[in-house]
């Protein structure tokens, strides 16, 4: 059911609509419009979710299109969920739609911090041995590099290979293992080494020593995860799923290393993998 009211008093208009079917207005919205006839412009302040960002839009309620100031007006949108009953999941999905890059980056940062904390708690002897700096380092890697990289990569694959049939899924898997995984792994080693104070030559030695074994170490795990992600999961949720698989991989490697007594590796290296990072 659609409802539109428009009241006009000289150069001031108040517009409210409940437009459930329109593509651009999926929630209740209210707008106050001030029209300047001399300069042929007006400003609209609205509280709504417009599937976009502040900018120039046309206001449409049902089949009636309201043209103000030659059909152009500037919308200064303010997100508000106070008038809607939203659970955490609904709120998160909405933020993925409204602020995808920020949401994915923050999610990656939190998941990588949780993964590192879990890895440390599984092996540390006391709370005094908890390395907060290492956890912050991993969180920053997820927030500032891996989250944005996931956003760009999965959207890119979704555009050039939009189908989900078996052939397309395997193409995505192979491309990811060849390009995305090695690139993220190399960046992780360089990032971690420089923050630990290693020189450029030491970073090069680390890459030559650890890069290939790291990539081959996850060949029994990550292709399966990637296949599930590309085949089943929608594109906007694929970064979250990828980071979740990284969390599980961290727990597995920590458990195996703990059983073998390899505490040195756990103290010096963070076992977190995204298509090859661990």
Would you mind describing this structure in some detail?
By secondary structure, the chain is of the alpha+beta class. It folds into two domains: 3-77; 88-268, no CATH class. 54% of the residues lie in helices and 15% in strands. The chain has eight helices and eight strands. The protein has helices spanning 88-98, 100-121, 132-160, 166-195, 200-217, 222-232, 238-260, 263-268, and strands at residues 3-9, 12-18, 29-36, 41-47, 55-57, 59-61, 64-66, 73-77. The strands form two sheets. A six-stranded mixed sheet has the order 1-2-3-4-8-5, with no helix packed on it. Strands 6-7 form a two-stranded antiparallel ribbon. α1 (88-98) crosses α2. The longest helix is centred in the middle third of the chain and has 30 residues, at 166-195.
């Amino acid at each position: 059911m659609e409802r539109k009211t428009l009241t006009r008093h000289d150069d001031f208009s108040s517009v409210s609509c409940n437009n459930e079917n329109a593509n651009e207005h999926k929630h209740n919205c209210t707008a106050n419009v001030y029209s300047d006839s001399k300069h042929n412009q007006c400003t609209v302040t609205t509280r709504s979710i417009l599937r976009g960002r502040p900018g120039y839009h046309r206001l449409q309620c049902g089949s009636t299109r309201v043209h103000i100031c030659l059909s152009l007006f500037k919308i200064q949108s303010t997100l508000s969920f106070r008038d809607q009953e939203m659970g955490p999941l609904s709120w998160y999905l909405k933020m993925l739609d409204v602020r995808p890059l920020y949401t994915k980056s923050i999610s990656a940062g939190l998941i990588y911090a949780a993964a590192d904390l879990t890895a440390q708690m599984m092996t540390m002897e006391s709370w005094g041995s908890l390395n907060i700096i290492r956890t912050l380092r991993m969180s920053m890697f997820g927030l500032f590099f891996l989250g944005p990289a996931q956003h760009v990569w999965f959207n890119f694959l979704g555009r050039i290979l939009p189908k989900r049939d078996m052939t397309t899924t395997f193409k995505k898997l192979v491309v990811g293992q060849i390009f995305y995984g090695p690139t993220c792994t190399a960046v992780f080693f360089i990032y971690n080494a420089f923050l630990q104070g290693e020189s450029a030559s030491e970073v090069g030695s680390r890459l030559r020593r650890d890069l290939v074994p790291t990539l081959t170490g996850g060949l029994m795990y990550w292709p399966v995860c990637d296949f599930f992600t590309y085949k089943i999961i929608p594109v906007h949720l694929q970064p979250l799923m990828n980071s979740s698989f990284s969390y599980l991989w961290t727990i597995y490697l920590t458990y195996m290393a703990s059983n073998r007594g390899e505490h040195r590796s756990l103290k010096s290296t963070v076992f977190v993998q995204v298509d090859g990072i661990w």
